[in-house]
C-alpha cells in the first residue's frame, strides 16, 4: 500500500479539514474550543480557509499524504516559518470568533503556546513551527505522519533552522522517535465534553528538533 506525499490542490482543502477533525475527535482542547456540532462545522470551514492560506503564503506550507491507489487524503502537516522580527500574529488575520466557538479557550491557548515557544528557543530565534500534523485514525500506524514530518525536517535542515512544536501527550513518544526533545510544557483547565465548567487538566509539551551538525542544505 503506497503513499504519495505532495502539496494538496485547493479543491482538497475540505478533505484536509475532515482528516483534522477525525484525528482530533478525542482531543479535549478541540471540544473545549468548539463545543457543539455547529462549532465543529465552523471549525471545519475555518480549517479549509487555513489550508488555502498555507498554500498561498510563502512563509507557510502544507503537505498531504494520499493513498496511492485511491488518491484519498489520509494525513497532512501544516507549518509556519517564524523569522526574527516577524511575530506569528503578523501572519494571521485577527478574527472575531462566533458564538459557536469559545474565544476564552482559543485566544489564551494561542498566547500560551507562543510564550512557551519563546522560552524554548528565544524570542528572536528563527524556526519552523509545525502547527498541525494529523492522520485519519483509519490510517494510523502506517507511516504517513513520519513521512510528512521528515519532509518538513528536510526543509528546516536546508535552512539551518530548528523545528518547534506543541505535542499532545499521546504524540510525545512519536516526536521523540523523530528526534525531538521536550523543552517546556503548557497546561490549561478545560471543560470536559458536554460541559461548560473547566474541571479537566489539559497538558501539552513544547518539543524542539535541531538539524544534525554537518547537515548539507538541499541544492
From TrEMBL:
PROSITE patterns per the UniProt record, alphabetical: GNAT
Which Gene3D superfamilies does the record associate with it?
A: 3.40.630.30
Occurrences of domain N-acetyltransferase (ranges): 63-208
Q: Which domain of life is it from?
A: Eukaryota
Molecular function as annotated in GO: acyltransferase activity, transferring groups other than amino-acyl groups
Q: What is this protein called?
A: N-acetyltransferase domain-containing protein
What is the species of this protein?
Hypocrea virens (strain Gv29-8 / FGSC 10586)
Amino acid at each position: 500500500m503506497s503513499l504519495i506525499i505532495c502539496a494538496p490542490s485547493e479543491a482538497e482543502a475540505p478533505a484536509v479539514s475532515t482528516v483534522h477533525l477525525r484525528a482530533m475527535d478525542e482531543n479535549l482542547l478541540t471540544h473545549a474550543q468548539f463545543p457543539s456540532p455547529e462549532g465543529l462545522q465552523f471549525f471545519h470551514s475555518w480549517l479549509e480557509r487555513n489550508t488555502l492560506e498555507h498554500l498561498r503564503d510563502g512563509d507557510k506550507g502544507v503537505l498531504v499524504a494520499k493513498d496511492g491507489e485511491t488518491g484519498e487524503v489520509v494525513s497532512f502537516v501544516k507549518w509556519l516559518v517564524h523569522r526574527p522580527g516577524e511575530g506569528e500574529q503578523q501572519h494571521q488575520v485577527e478574527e472575531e470568533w462566533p458564538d459557536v466557538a469559545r474565544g476564552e479557550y482559543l485566544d489564551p491557548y494561542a498566547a500560551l503556546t507562543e510564550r512557551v515557544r519563546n522560552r524554548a528557543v528565544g524570542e528572536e530565534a528563527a524556526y519552523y513551527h509545525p502547527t498541525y500534523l494529523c492522520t485519519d485514525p483509519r490510517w494510523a500506524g502506517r507511516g504517513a505522519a513520519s513521512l510528512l514530518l521528515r519532509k518538513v525536517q528536510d526543509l528546516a535542515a536546508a535552512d539551518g533552522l530548528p523545528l518547534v512544536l506543541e505535542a499532545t501527550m499521546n504524540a510525545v513518544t512519536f516526536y521523540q522517535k523523530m528526534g525531538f526533545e521536550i523543552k517546556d510544557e503548557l497546561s490549561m483547565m478545560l471543560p470536559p465534553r458536554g460541559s461548560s465548567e473547566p474541571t479537566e487538566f489539559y497538558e501539552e509539551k513544547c518539543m524542539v528538533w535541531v538539524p544534525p551538525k554537518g547537515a548539507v542544505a538541499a541544492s
